Amino acid sequence: MIKLLRINILLLLIITFSGCGFFSSDKDAAEKPTPKNEPKTELGDGNSFVITNANFFDGKAFSKNAVIVVEDGLIASINPEHILEALPVIDASGQTILPGLIDAHVHAFDIGGLQDALRFGVTTELDMFTALQFAATQRALRDDLARKDTADLFSAVTMVTSKGGHGTQYGLPIPVIASPEEASDFVAARLAEGSDYIKIVYQPGDGGTFTSISLDTLKAVVTATHQQGAMAVVHVMTLEGAQGAVEAGADGLVHIFGDAPIPPKLVAEMRQGNIFVIPTLAVIASVLGERDSETLQADSALAPFISTAQKENLAASFGASDELRQRFDIETAKANVLALHKAGVLVLAGTDAPNPGTAYGVSLHGELAFLVDAGLTPTEALQAATANPRTAFALKGRGRIIKGARADLVFVKGDPSKDILATRSITRIFKNGYEIERKIIVAEKTAAIKPDLPNGLVSDFETDLATGFGVPWFQTTDQLANGTSTVALSHTETGTMLVTGEVTTKFMFPWSGAGVFFSENFDKAYDLSDYKTIKFRTKGDARKISVMFFTRTSMRRPAVATFKMTEDWSDQAINLETIRGAAMDEVYGFAITAGRPKGEFEF
């Protein structure tokens, strides 16, 4: 009997679209008087202090040479005439202070992700779908002003979707809606679970990959959400979807579409309806293979703080089809963002992390650059990550540096009003007025073994399915991630390995095939850096086949190379040096698998 190896792969969420809300006013800072009896003591361990010589961005505009007083984790005053107590002093000369950044579209699954976000100055995350229990634990922590090393989390928790719709493909048992009549009770159940806002998936004309709720159901859910005092944000992927969401009265869209230019009529309707947009250009670019992950990892201001898991996510790829690229254009998406912005529609910065090509925290700096590239000024891009989400989601105390706001502060070198890349040069981060220790990440590396492979031979299949690594070929399918694909391996009398199975589309990233994994718990690795190619002979059904590598930098989402199978025997040679995201000096296993399209296969 062939053993079914269990691989712990973190499933990442595919691109979605959503948004929400309107205005929460704050009193702007007064004109700067000259402070008197300025304290001279050094900074202590508490969350009360004074900042002098502060050039800062208050969430809407820049100010210079200010004095900011923080008491018990809150902004107590800006440019006071007197400072009554002797407080520790921070001299901010040569730096710019920003409000803690807000990522308006993530999928947060664990504490590590929230720690990653804070390490890059993201102090608040707006989640668009996560596990119920995780959201509940974080909700209980976000309102106090205690010392913490994680970003705060607000969440939609469970998205509203149809049977077979987007959100059902990840193996998580989630409720689904079937008709407008269910809307009121369905929304009430989500709010009772603790959803801070309601996220609805609306994907008409998806081409068969997913089902979608009807327009009437969408309208009923939005209406029920508003009647019950909450905001409704909608995931859309196309112009048709956006038009339906706006017609339904949604508060916001959580992605921009790129299949067509936005009509002036829709722009006007969004402006009149105070409907905001979270473009998530970073993940859209990743889907289309035009991402900025290499740029982020190469930035000397960011690179020392990017964890191994983040590098893995940044290196991962959606593997978008040519058909998708033909109906979705990144330049059209950018132009649509600019058209909405110019019309006065509120634009919010969001990343959709941790989808392939993105990572918590660091990708928000990439999203800011994408917004500037779309035509926003650096100041407008910063508003999209601070005051705009505060306004849209009524996040009291966040996204501004004004009296009464939380002392969530990010110190950076340079002037981000002129160069948005200056946000990456972070010197200090404060959460609830407490300074965060921002440690340089030192990647832990397993002691990889140099393999003893005579002539580099892995398998010849003359007698069985053995390999030169001392383990046999195993079955591997997306059942390990709650998918439904199947596979069987057998050794033939002609000295080959026969792989037969069926790929289904219940799982978003289906796979089915044969793998070589060096240990069941991924605690054994081989250094294959001396090898430049993997070669094999294949024949089978004419379809695309993937070679997946689980390496130091691609553990949770494997690095992938593809080739086209032919019905006659053909020699395949894959250059290992060209596989994006693979660290061949530390390899935990590899597999040869069939993926989409669904159906039976044999090779």
Please, could you describe this protein's structure?
The protein is α/β, with parallel strands linked by helices. 21% of the residues lie in helices and 22% in strands. Strands 1, 2, 3, 4, 5, 13, 14 and 15 form an eight-stranded mixed sheet that branches. A five-stranded antiparallel sheet has the order 16-19-24-21-22, with no helix packed on it. A hairpin with a 4-residue loop joins β1 and β2.
Task: Sum up the structure in keywords.
single chain, alpha/beta, eight-stranded mixed β-sheet, five-stranded antiparallel β-sheet, 25 strands, globular, disordered N terminus
Principal-axes shape call? globular
Number of helices in the DSSP assignment: 14
Which whole number gives the mean pLDDT? Answer: 88
N- to C-terminal distance: 20 Å
For the largest beta-sheet, the strand count, sense and barrel status come to: 8 strands, mixed
How large is the share of residues in beta strands? 15-25%
**Radius of gyration over all CA atoms, rounded:** 26 Å
Number of strands: 25
Structural class: alpha/beta
Low-confidence stretches: 1-41
Estimate percent helicity: 10-25%
